[in-house]
Amino acid sequence: DIYRNNMKSLLVALFVVAAAASSCNNPLFSADQFDGQDVLSLLPVPAPMTKNTLCPAYVGKDSCCDMSILNQMSSMFETMDGQVHSQLVQARLTVSQVSSMLIDQPGGDQIVNLLNKALDSSSTCYNSISNYVKGMLCFACDAEAGSFVNETATDIYVKVQRSSCSSIISGCFPLIDIFLETIAIAGPLPADAA
Asked: What is the C-alpha to C-alpha distance for residues 55 and 25, in angstroms, rounded to an integer?
């Protein structure tokens, strides 16, 4: 009897620990991190993720997101991607219109070429950042997200793979280089224009 009672107690304790470990609690996406606004409502306990286009790496794995959450995230990114695409199209039209005025200026042809390269690089940089953000939102769905997050009394730290940082750096540094090259040709902006 003592053995059985001890075994029952041990099993109950293991169940409680396992339930706590598999609860959907990611401190990065808690309401108190966003001034009390609920930015992402996670499931209370993980469930297998169904087929989706936003987080395909998690399909079939335990997830803290249901399809309504994934649909909200997908819709948000479709809207944001559309807005960025529209802004880049508008910027290309503007560069096209201004290029005839710049061509006659000293270094104008170089500036027009750099502006076009900057627009191409802007798209690449945006895609790098967007992919990272999408990955972080999918990370919120990960039932094991807690193992990648360290929380102190005042801060939250996330363990990020080097490849994630490298992707953003390789996607955005060319844009910074183009910006610096443009300043070298055109000169710095006047103080009142900044």
From this structure: 18
Compute, in degrees rounded to 10, the torsion defined by CA atoms 164, 170, 175, 177.
130
pLDDT recorded at residue 18:
41
Contacts of 51 (CB under 8 A, 6+ apart): 59
Per the CB < 8 A criterion, the answer to whether 150 and 157 are in contact is yes
Q: Taking 80 as the threshold, does the pLDDT of residue 21 lie above it? A: no
The answer to whether the predicted template modeling score (pTM) of the entire model surpasses 0.90 is no
Tell me the three-class secondary structure of 169-189, residue by residue: HHHHHHHHHHHHHHHHHHCCC
| pLDDT 10s digits, 63-84 | 888 888 788 888 888 888 889 8
How far, in Å, CA of 105 to CA of 71, rounded?
A: 50
Which of 166, 77, 177 is CA-nearest to residue 122?
Answer: 177
Under DSSP, the state recorded for 77 is H
Question: How many CA atoms within 13 Å lie on the side-chain side of 103?
Answer: 6
- Closest listed residue to residue 86, CA positions, set 32, 36, 34, 122: 122
